[in-house]
Specification:
The protein is an alpha/beta fold. Helices cover 42% and strands 16% of the residues. The strands form 4 sheets. The protein has a 4-stranded mixed β-sheet. A hairpin with a 2-residue loop joins strand 14 and strand 15. It is globular, with a radius of gyration of 22 Å. Bound molecules: pyridoxal-5'-phosphate (PLP). Pyridoxal-5'-phosphate binds next to helix 6. The site of pyridoxal-5'-phosphate has 15 residues, from helix 6.
Length: 453
């Protein structure tokens, strides 16, 4: 007799084409179908319970099962389920959310353009940056400098701004006008340099690139405060101050992609606060609504607002769902929960330091070459040899193995090649962190045994 899970898996195979999935693998293994969630836990259709160490896709900041968010959506949908923000219109939730965002953002950032996702936010930022220079009579200032191994989304512009080689393979990507410099990934690429020397060296590549292209052609630099999907690459302390100095020196706009770092993940409201960045633009999404409804945005500084809101004329850009009232109402309630429950402070003062302490214990494991993290986001590097940092061969397979053991052991951990990542809900408790660490240890042991077998 076939179970509900088997029936659903069969339908899934027949009709559903999944994002970022090897469909051949999926056909062999079958999809894991998540059907229920509460707090930091997920259940699949076979009743298997897992601690969600990834908060969905880095987004479920306030945890699952929050009735306040359901009620905010219900109320707004019964009053006004949809209206747009085009042509001098908008809705009360979009206005209130914009005001709340200005309150929590860095002091000089007080405006937002709403989108439906992080990818749309990065498409938007590209257009706003070019608009900013064009309306000031400098349309040739259009190149955006990004970094290799960055992730900025999956739309054509998002994937182009991103620096994932495998995403550029389809052809036509990256689109013209986007350049990539090397990333500040010390563990993999630092060689004999200290992290500080390496951070400085990698930041100075921006200056070299600006001079190579000609400052009159360069519009902006974009970077995630820490590279999330690329493997939680945390830049050395010297990196961002030097990037900021270079952007200021040449008058280049600085875009901090806050899609993962925003809304408390690193122990401050934004990754820019944690790393001392003064951005002109901040693409946001994910934690903005804790993923309960899709919404994103591009926040921008007062100096950008002076141009875009006063001199620029009409902006020929927007989405049907820009400022969607139900999504905005949910996002507003979500930010109120983060404030009322002091989740950012909790990450900074309690659960963040506790997780970082316990995460370091994993460095004792024979497979772990480095542990790193900040706030509630962590990574570890799987290696064959701790001293030489030699990888386990074939590259990337150990990460997949470890991820699968985590899943069987009741923990959702992500693998990027041989880097294991976690980014749990901001509501996670110390006891749940203990459980996460124990499950991670067991999964590392299982991985080692399987490799040695
Ligand atoms: N920017 C960053 C830094 C991201 O991590 C992501 C998604 O993971 C995106 C942009 C794209 O966001 P979305 O998947 O909502 O389009």
């Amino acid at each position: 007799m076939t179970t509900t899970t088997e029936k659903l898996q069969e339908l899934d195979r027949q009709h559903h084409f999944h994002p970022f999935t090897d469909q051949g693998d999926l056909n062999k293994k079958g999809t894991r179908i998540i059907s229920k969630a509460d707090g930091v836990y997920l259940w699949d259709t076979d009743g298997h319970k897992m601690l969600d160490g990834m908060a969905g896709l880095w987004c479920v900041a306030v945890g699952y099962g929050r009735d306040e968010l359901v009620e905010a959506a219900r109320q707004q949908m019964s009053e006004l389920p949809y209206y747009n923000s085009f042509f001098q219109c908008t809705t009360p939730p979009a206005i209130k959310l914009a005001e709340k965002l200005a309150e929590v953002a860095p002091d000089h950032v007080n405006n937002v353009f709403f989108t439906g996702s992080g990818s749309e936010s990065n498409d938007t930022v590209l257009r706003l940056v070019r608009h900013y220079w064009a309306v000031q009579g400098q349309p040739e200032k259009s190149v955006i400098i990004s970094r290799k191994n960055a992730y900025h989304g999956s739309t054509v512009a998002g994937a182009s701004l991103g620096g994932m080689g495998y995403m550029h393979k389809q052809g036509g990507l990256p689109i013209p006008g986007i350049e990539h410099i090397d990333q500040p990934y010390w563990f993999e690429e630092g060689g004999d340099l200290t992290p500080e020397e390496f951070g400085l060296q990698r930041a100075q590549l921006l200056e070299e690139k600006i001079l190579e292209l000609g400052v009159e052609k360069v519009a902006a630099f974009i970077g995630e405060p820490l590279q999330g999907a690329g493997g939680v690459i945390i830049p050395p302390s010297t990196y961002w101050p030097e990037i900021q100095r270079i952007c200021d020196k040449y008058g280049i706009l600085l875009i901090a992609d806050e899609v993962i770092c925003g809304f408390g993940r690193t122990g401050n409201w934004f990754g820019s606060d944690t790393f001392g960045i003064k951005p002109d633009f901040m693409p946001i999404a994910k934690g903005l609504s804790s993923g309960y409804l899709p919404i994103g945005g591009v926040m921008f500084s007062d100096r950008v607002a002076e141009v875009l809101k006063n001199e620029a004329g009409e902006i020929n850009h927007g989405y049907t769902y820009s400022g969607h009232p139900a999504a905005a109402a949910v996002a507003l309630k979500n930010l109120e929960i983060i404030q009322d429950e002091k989740l950012v402070e909790r990450v900074a003062e309690d659960t963040g330091p506790y997780l970082q302490d316990r995460w370091q214990e994993l460095l004792d494991h024979p497979l772990v070459g480095e542990t790193r993290g900040v706030g509630l986001v962590c990574a570890l590097e799987l290696v064959k040899d701790k001293t030489t940092r030699e990888r386990l061969a074939p590259d990337g397979k150990a990460g997949g193995l470890c991820r699968d053991f985590c899943t069987s052991n009741g923990l959702v951990m992500r693998a990027t090649g041989d880097i294991m990542l976690i980014s749990p809900p901001l509501t996670i408790t110390r006891d749940e962190i203990d459980e996460l660490i124990e499950k991670a240890k067991k999964s590392l042991d299982d991985t080692l045994k399987a490799i040695e077998a």
